[in-house]
Amino acid sequence: MKAEPDAQARLLDLQELDTGLQRVEHRARTLPETAEAAALKERVDQIDSELVTAQTKVSDIEREQRKAERDVDQVRSRADRDTKRLESGQITNSKELQNLQSEITSLARRQAELEEVVLEVMERAEELNAQVVRLTAEREETVAKYTEVTARRDTAAAGIAMDRDTIVRDRERVAAEVPADLLALYDKLRAQYDGVAAAPLRYGRCGGCKLALSTVELNDIRATPADEVVRCEDCRRILVRTAESGLGGQAEQ
């Protein structure tokens, strides 16, 4: 393939732009704020799930507490009623008095047991309410941080998008100055060789694979017309001759 030296040199400009575009797209894919925002969103979702569970348990324990308190009230009311009967003097039968006193004693024990249940339920309710308060505070803090991180992510992404648009416009301008057949070869090689299709020959070394060319290879290139497109024998990328190629002025023909 033949192309004017200036057109070949434009490949290096095009390659620099394409490499810059790769870097920009890599930055867009690897923004630290993206991963951080995802982790924060996951934590918010987890907190929401924990809150639902805790709030459900609070509702259950509140029902349990109300039932326990009703049980205490019922026992207390019955004990009060029996005590009034005992103190009224209306019961004279000794057997009946003995039974009533025994029931009052039994009710007192039952009331004490139920009051212990109420205290235990209240302690559990207090722990669950504290958990709800803690989770609610953590959720507010996490949501605020998520909002701040996503704002930074969006700002960074917008800046990257602007950089990308600038590079794309410059690439279109430079690509228009490269002959169609040479551009087609360049694009084909970019797809084959990790995005690097053209490299400068500087001081006898390929800028693509970084390997030094042999004396025979340099002599072959030196003998090749300046408008002939040459390829690196090792990496097969387009090798663009420059003033620093080490060819003794052949690149300036």
From TrEMBL:
Chain coiled-coil ranges: none
Domain annotation C4-type zinc ribbon: ranges: 205-239
Domain of life (superkingdom): Bacteria
Gene3D superfamilies (alphabetical): 1.10.287.1490
Domain CT398-like coiled coil hairpin: 14-193
Biased composition (Basic and acidic residues): 62-87
Chain intervals for the UniProt region annotation (Disordered): 62-88
Listed transmembrane segments: none
One Pfam family cited in the UniProt record for this chain: CT398_CC
InterPro entries with a match to the protein in the record: CT398_CC_hairpin, Oxidative_Scav/Glycosyltrans, Zf-RING_7
PANTHER family found in the cross-reference section: PHOSPHOLIPASE C-BETA-2-RELATED, SCAVENGER RECEPTOR CLASS A MEMBER 3
This protein's name: C4-type zinc ribbon domain-containing protein
